[in-house]
Records
---
Amino acid sequence: QVQLVESGGGLVQAGGSLRLSCAASGRTFSSYGMGWFRQAPGKVREFVAAISWSGTTRYADSVKGRFTISRDNAKNTLYLQMDSLRSEDTAVYFCVKDSSLTNWGLGTQVTVSS
């Protein structure tokens, strides 16, 4: 089981930016894809962005053009750069290892004030 630890959440005004990080344990980080999901109060967890082991990215329509997912394999770290934040981006953000969706971090809270 890979340990995933998110950080970088906080309170930001609408239009602002945050960068989330997800640190992964182990030595095989570069060999698997990673993703970000989010869950707002009273809502189901939803897909935000994903990046393959080779760097191919995809995004939910709601964040396309505003969020950027990236990875640093030398640091075993996944990132989510969030720009032009909106109140509807308020949620707990989780990173997850590969498409099995069985290995999650504990999440980091992002609150966007309008």
Note: Strands lie at 4-7, 10-13, 18-24, 34-39, 46-51, 57-59, 67-72, 77-82, 91-97, 108-113.
---
Amino acid sequence: QLQLVESGGGLVQPGGSLRLSCVISGGTLNDYGIGWFRRAPGKEREAISCVSNGGASKNYADSVKGRFTISRDNAKNTVNLEMHSLLPEDTGVYYCNANVQYWGQGTQVTVSS
């Protein structure tokens, strides 16, 4: 059974940065496309970014393009999401997902002064 564990969330001021990590176990990361999603308070879960299993293809939601960067380290079974110039509307629970099938438990990101 594939397991995903997110970390790196926290409280940050507007304009600040955070780095989220998603560590996969029970499988080989290179076999999976990985996506980051977030659920903002009172809103539906939305896709933020995704990276193909080989890492060649990366996509971003318009709301985060130019501010967030997704990367994967297959040797460490880890996918990272670098987030910069954070806005209050980036607040939410961030989840990683493998092959649209497996989910982590989420990590809370709060952007507030």
Note: The radius of gyration is 13 Å.
